[in-house]
Amino acid sequence: MSFNSGIELDPDRVSTRSTGRRGAAIGGGSVVAVIAVMLLSQLTGVDLTGLVSQDDGGSAAQTGSSSIDTSMCTTGEAANTYTQCRMVATAESLDAVWGEQLPAQDGRAYAKPDFVLWNGNQVSTACGSASSAVGPFYCPGDSTVYLDMSFFSDMESQLGANDTPLAEEYIVAHEFGHHIQNLQGTMSKTDRSGTGADSDSVRTELQADCYAGTWVHYASTTIDPETGKPFLNKPGDEEIQTALDAASAVGDDHIQQRSGAGVDSDSWTHGSSESRVRWFKTGLEQGDLSACNTFAVAASQL
Length: 302
Ligand SMILES: [Zn+2]
Prior knowledge:
The protein is built from ten helices and six strands. The model is unreliable at 22-46 and 48-63 (pLDDT under 50). It has one domain. Helix 3 packs parallel to helix 5 (165-184) and helix 5 (165-184) packs across helix 8. It is α/β, with parallel strands linked by helices. The chain binds zinc ion.
């Protein structure tokens, strides 16, 4: 989804962290990744994409420790050119959409999450330390979305989803969806330690997908308060399809198939490809938070 060239961005909407070359300091072994994942799981707030099961620590070794420069991220053109600027613009659009929709639809005030772009070995959070193998995640303890800048190339190379702008934006919008759930109290009310196709974990993730779709529903009509222009141009069907492809790629069954393991729905934490696409579409088509209540539907409708 392309950003309107006339919008104005604030590079300070994101913060950046660089922590050294990936794999160099801690060995980059999958055991390290698994430990990091377990730590996060125990401390809650984790959003595992499943990449850990395939990450041998070397898949993105070219990712260095260079700092992430967002100083040029001031315009829609920059957002359409540079990934880090697209992250800034996506966050600002999400802030604008949820700043309107959360009060209007749910009677709650919206408070912005922090958004950290990082590269390197690991990142320290209120939910514990995470390695880049974890994938993007939201930590309710510090109300922060963490996104490793190497994730999008991993998404393409390991999960087979084309790394397109709207696919990237879907990932960010999904993590902001967890922040909305946190504001709604859902994060603290649900038991996300369990797994399985109808577990609270999966219901939480599918609702975040639905909220991501809800953002797309409003993103091309919600106005940048700085300029009076919409943040985004209305996405075409082909662009939408790339987001649906990304949602499908991060389905548990697809990830299990890619990793060579058999499909085992008892271990699912995020839901099937089909479910993730369907709930994203529900938000996209309806723009109605109440239609995203994955906790209210029978297991057969997840
Ligand atoms: Zn999630």
